[in-house]
């Protein structure tokens, strides 16, 4: 199933810390509650992320995925000191690449064989 919902790009603040993270989350929370939310955090302005910022971002990723959506990062600066802590995210060099990634889903070569195997009754052998 492909999702044709629009992709939302959110600009992250320069400081994603214990002060800014709750404010950002409060603005984003209603969007995370929508089904199949497709969100990109534009991190081009981010220079510092503390533990509270990382925790907020991971919370957003988890909530989006629970709602059958996804959250991706774009333009994460190497200057940001939390790059290593954000490996749980799919990250892209630019926002355009991240947006395109939502539309470029192609099933792997294994998908058609599964569909064919289970379509016909009696093709599975009973376990002995």
Strand content: 15-25%
In terms of per-residue confidence, which ranges show pLDDT below 50 for 5 or more consecutive residues? Answer: 106-128
**DSSP summary, beta strand count:** 6
**Would you tell me which CATH topology applies?**
Transcription Regulator spoIIAA
| Portion of residues within helices | 25-40%
CATH-level-4 superfamily name: STAS domain
**Distance linking N and C termini:** 35 Å
The top level CATH class name: Alpha Beta
The CATH architecture category equals 2-Layer Sandwich
SSE succession: EEHEEHEEHH
Give the C-alpha Rg: 18 Å
Determine the number of helices (DSSP H or I, runs of at least 4 residues). 4
How can the largest sheet be summarized? 4 strands, parallel
Strand neighbour order, sheet with most strands: 1-3-5-6
Report on the architecture of this protein:
By secondary structure, the chain is α/β, with parallel strands linked by helices. The protein has a single domain (8-103), classed as Transcription Regulator spoIIAA. The chain has 4 helices and 6 strands. The protein has helices at 20-32, 51-66, 95-103, 111-119, and strands at residues 8-11, 15-16, 38-42, 48-49, 70-74, 90-92. The strands form 2 sheets. It has a 4-stranded parallel β-sheet. The chain is globular, with a radius of gyration of 18 Å.
